Every structure is written in C-alpha cells, then in structure tokens.
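Let's practice the habit of predicting before peeking. Look at the sequence and jot down your guess about where helices and strands might fall. Then scroll down.
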Amino acid sequence: MVRDPVSVEDDPDLQVLLDALDDPDCRAIVTNLDEPMTASEISDATDIPLSTVYRKLDALTDASLLSELTEVRSDGHHTTRYDLDFDEVSLSLTDEQEFDVAVSRPARSAEERLADMWSEVRKET
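Done guessing? Here is the structure:
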C-alpha cells in the first residue's frame, strides 16, 4: 500500500494500529529500531525470519508507525531502510464514548521530507 507523503501526519486507523502493536514480532521490531535499518538488519537483530520481517514491516508501515527511506546508490541497487515514525501513541475515549488514537511524530527536516517523497515516487514507478 502506497502512503501519501502529505497525509503521513494523519493519525492511523485505530484497528490497524492496535493490530500492529498487539503483534509480538512487530513490538520486537519497534524496540530494536534505534536507527534506520534494512529488513535484513532487522531480521538479524530480532532473530525473526526475513519473510516474516517483511510482513511485519508492512503492518507497521500501514499503521504509520514506521517510515520507509530509500537509500539511492550509484550502482543502481537502491536499499530501503526503515525507521520509527512516532514518539508516542495515545489512546483516549471521546465524549461520544468512542476510542480515539493520536500519534505524536518527531519533527522532520526538509531533507527527511524530501526523502519520504522520493520513496513514494520510487514505489509508483
């Protein structure tokens, strides 16, 4: 699923976010991402099989908890790195007795925003 880089600041769907955070493998990935990492590096750090890591990265990205950064290489073999895209997740109850989720995100530099847009363009091509 391609995410619109403009809407990255929007809060994710509650169920999608809860499903991702309920998954032990997803939580292991989140707790091991202290810097941007490739799927292979995440697999090595968490001892989760690479095929499973890819599925969990999709779930975390769909929940807007991870960002995908494309590392452009001169040899043409680009690499995707994954990084945390939140500082805090808050769950609250509204006046209408419905659950509401809010995600606090780190400040992004112009370079990071440009990298996000480039990642989205690469997915479309």
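How did you do? Confidence is low (pLDDT under 50) at residues 1-9.
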